[in-house]
Design a protein that fits this description.
The complex is a heterotrimer of chains A (124), B (145) and C (523). Chain A is mainly alpha-helical and 124 residues long. Chain A has a single domain, classed as Helix Hairpins. Chain B has 145 residues and is mostly helical. Helices cover 70% and strands 0% of the residues of chain B. In chain B, helix 1 runs antiparallel to helix 2 and helix 2 crosses helix 3. Chain B starts with 7 loop residues before the first helix and ends with a helix. Chain C has 523 residues and is an all-alpha fold. Chain C has a domain of 204 residues. Helices cover 76% and strands 2% of the residues of chain C. Chain C has 21 helices and 2 strands. Chain C has a two-stranded antiparallel ribbon with strand order 1-2. Chain C is globular and about 75 Å long. The chains are: A mainly alpha (124), B mainly alpha (145), C mainly alpha (523). The interface between B and C is medium-sized, with 19 and 16 residues.
């Protein structure tokens, strides 16, 4: 049922944006950020799924069954390139989330609150 | 019975499980070119084994086993391994950066794929050390204030 | 020895990226060793050596690309494109790379004196060098996902550097910057996903060839490609401070240490503009990109300068004026995009935009470094509290004045030359209203900058600042060097145009770039 992948990915992205805009808690904002990025990752992986136009694609792991007929294997498997891209991007997002959470810990120690509307020293 | 950490049963089991989990992480790293996984997930599993130690034994005791100096040097060592591997391609072999240093064996064997296993090991060490640094930094901050 | 030199010169593009990366990762080790041998300055000098080496790798490349008009292509691991990552150094790349390496060198020299009293310096230099590696990687790469990865490397280092002083303001500014910056890079990733789904390749040259084919087959441009263009413009535009995505910029620039604001203003915006131009012009040739950039440029110019008029804090004022100058650059580039190949007025506009980019990268960091020198001695950057510092800090006052005049576009400094090109182009393409708006904004710029100068440097000295002395030498060297460059490019604008000239070629005439990167392999 391939039409479900893309709308779910876009829905995750929109829920993430909603979390960023409307929640009054810094940690919920970070969770919204993670949802946002994971929506785009899901989109990217589903792009790889559809790119071959085959009925039931198989995972791109070369086992002994397929060792003799490699062109057939390449034609029937899911495109592995977007999966590698998503793996790299997930690792980048881990470091962003770690940095964001460290900032949240510092902010909590300084201000004693996690509400972003009360932390507004910079104006103009 | 020491003050920090969990009960004696948990500590014993964790002490038995820690090398097994470390070994599993190393397996995922080294077989990165054959099975799903590779440097990044393997590094996270290695870091998880250290986190398990921290949960069971408390932060201060586990810091004596895997301390600051070890994580910093391992992290720089992983990065250096990657770049030195790339430079070997340039200086010794006469090709471009990251030209294959090990022979490309047949499909499906462990020692195949040129540079890939060593790159995976370098990435795995770096990611593991980095994750452990992050977790230590976040845990230690609560105590300092 | 000659063999060694010949080998190294072949591999210069990858060394330009690998040297700051390697240097950055070795810096904590140098820090640990330095503590053992009780030499505190070891980290500073090591970072200085790495920055000088990086700048030196740019010079032979610059001579080859600008003097000879070649395009250096370097394939990693010897794999033929498009199935491998390659680096391609053409006019646009070398301009962005030179600016990135030069600004990093100036900031490292400045930081040796400025950050003397801080601790955790090895992490500071690590992040600064990795940021430099990211900037050079963005300008040199020819693979769009590699562009995204280097973009993230640069952004994450800058998020951490903005929060370096762990005061409340720095944390708030850095958090805001982090959230908005991540939304920007996620938009870029989404654009890459859409484009990959449409054509199935990640090499920029290959993408440009195939995307044009897709739009020809579909008899018009499909909606998804237009959406991808919007995502790319949003993603890169957020990084360079385009209105309406600029809200993080003043907070981040105000909260960061002054040398970091300088490298953000001079380095990341320049590299962001280069990446934006390469992606939009090379991939989406068939759309009316020129009009879009003109419109965005006008809005950015006007809003930036209006908000700058009411600022009280020096760094915040400089940040808003940076936003307004980015509008000029977009205006010039958009005017250039109107014409296409061979329309001479359009080329003039494009050259004006690129020259303004170069000038902006010289005088903006100069102004931020001067603000940093003031903060170093006085401790605050609120302009209402300080005054009359011209007698106490003559070098800083003189270089700040040169920077102010250059930004406002007064002859014979470099800002005038680039702004004049943009005014002339506006008249030549029969849109004199653009020139009028640009001139009015220039007048506003002069107004608020002179206000800043008089408030900080002229007038009576408040009592608590009586004992302020001159700044140390290491802070003066980069300020003097940048001010000298302002004067040089002002008196000899031909020199600047020569540097900038090869930059417009890959954007209008795709064929040399595509042929060089793909090497004749058209799959």
């Amino acid at each position: 049922m391939f039409p479900l992948h893309y709308p779910v990915a876009i829905l995750m992205f929109l829920v993430g944006v909603y979390c960023l805009l409307y929640r009054r808690n810094l940690i919920k904002m970070v969770i919204g950020l993670v949802l946002l990025t994971d929506g785009v990752h899901l989109f990217l992986v589903s792009v790889g799924y559809n790119i071959r136009n085959v009925e039931n694609p198989i995972p791109p792991i070369l086992t002994e069954r397929w060792l003799d007929s490699i062109p057939e294997f390449a034609a029937q498997s899911v495109d592995p390139l977007p999966q590698v891209l998503v793996l790299t991007s997930i690792v980048i997002d881990i470091s962003i989330v770690a940095l964001a959470l460290s900032l949240v810990i510092y902010i909590y120690n300084k201000y004693g609150t996690l509400n972003p509307h009360e932390i507004r020293e910079l104006r103009g | 019975m020491s003050k920090s950490g969990m009960t004696m049963i948990v500590k014993t089991i964790v002490r038995l499980l820690f090398p097994v989990l470390l070994l599993f992480g190393a397996y995922v790293v080294i077989h990165g070119h054959l099975t799903p996984g590779g440097g990044f997930p393997g590094g996270v599993i290695i870091a998880t084994s250290v986190v398990m130690l921290v949960l069971a034994y408390g932060y201060l005791e586990s810091k004596e086993v895997v301390g600051d100096i070890q994580t910093e040097t391992l992290e720089s060592f992983g990065a250096l391994m990657l770049i030195v591997l790339g430079l070997i391609g340039v200086l010794i072999l006469g090709g471009n950066f990251f030209t294959a240093a090990l022979p490309l064996g047949e499909l499906g064997a462990l020692f195949s794929g040129g540079n890939l296993p060593i790159l995976n090991i370098g990435v795995g060490i770096k990611v593991g050390a980095g994750m452990v640094t992050i977790v230590y930094a976040m845990i230690s901050f609560r105590g300092e204030e | 020895m000659m063999w060694f030199a010949a080998r190294i010169s072949e591999h210069l593009p990858i060394f330009a990226v690998a040297i700051p990366l390697l240097g950055g990762f070795v810096t904590p080790l140098i820090g640990i060793l330095g503590e053992r041998w009780s030499s505190i300055k070891a980290v500073d000098y090591f970072a200085l050596i790495i920055a000088v080496l990086t700048f030196l790798t740019m010079i032979p490349l610059a001579r080859g690309v600008i003097g000879g008009g070649e395009i250096f292509v370097y394939e990693l691991a010897g794999r033929i494109p498009p199935w491998g990552i390659s680096l391609a150094v053409d006019g646009l790349s070398i301009l962005a790379g030179l600016i990135a390496a030069g600004i990093t060198l100036a900031v490292v020299i400045f930081s040796i004196g400025f950050m003397k009293k801080e601790e955790g310096l090895d992490k500071y230099y690590l992040l600064l060098l990795i940021m430099c590696a990211g900037m050079i990687g963005i300008s040199f790469t020819a693979d769009i996902f590699n562009l995204y990865v280097f973009f993230e490397i640069m952004s994450i280092s800058s998020y951490a550097l903005v929060a370096y002083y762990r005061t409340g303001r720095s944390l708030e500014g850095s958090f805001k910057y982090l959230i908005m910056g991540t939304i920007g890079t996620v938009s870029i990733l989404w654009g890459i996903a859409i484009v990959y789904g449409a054509v199935g390749t990640l090499n920029i040259a290959d993408l440009s060839v195939r995307l044009v084919a897709v739009s020809e087959i579909a008899a018009g441009v499909p909606l998804s490609i237009i959406f991808a263009l919007a995502l790319f413009v949003a993603g890169f535009g957020l990084k360079i401070g385009m209105v309406p995505l600029h809200a993080w910029l003043p907070d981040a620039y105000q909260a960061a240490p002054a040398p970091i604001s300088a490298v953000l203003a001079g380095g990341t915006t320049v590299v962001g503009v280069a990446a934006l131009l390469r992606v939009t012009y090379l991939l989406f040739d068939a759309l009316a990109i020129g009009y879009m950039f003109i419109g965005l440029g006008l809005i950015t110019m006007v809003i930036g300068s209006f908000i700058a008029l009411v600022q009280e804090d020096l760094k915040r004022l400089l940040a808003y004026s940076g936003i307004s100058q980015m509008g000029y650059i977009l205006l010039g580039v958009g005017l250039g995009g109107l014409g296409g190949i061979g329309v001479s007025e359009a080329i003039l506009g494009f050259e004006g935009g690129m020259f303004h980019l170069l000038n902006n990268a010289i005088y903006k960091p100069l102004l931020f470094l001067c603000a940093g020198a003031v903060i170093y001695r006085v401790g605050t950057s609120n302009m209402e509290e300080i005054g009359g510092l011209a007698k106490k800090m003559p070098v800083t006052a003189a270089t700040f004045l040169i920077g102010v005049l250059a930004l406002a576009g007064i002859p014979p400094l470099n800002g005038f030359a680039s702004k004049w090109l943009i005014y002339v182009t506006g008249v030549q393409v029969n849109q004199p209203i653009l020139t009028v708006i640009a001139v009015v904004v220039s007048g506003l710029t002069l107004a608020y900058l002179l206000k800043a100068f008089t408030m900080v440097f002229l007038g009576p000295v408040p009592a608590k600042f009586e004992n302020v002395g001159k700044v140390p030498v290491s802070l003066q060297i980069p300020m003097l060097a940048l001010a000298a460059l302002c004067i040089v490019f002002g008196i000899l604008p031909g020199l600047g145009l020569e540097l900038v000239g090869p930059a417009w070629e890959p954007l209008f005439d795709h064929v040399p770039y595509v042929e060089a990167v793909l090497g004749g392999v058209i799959p």
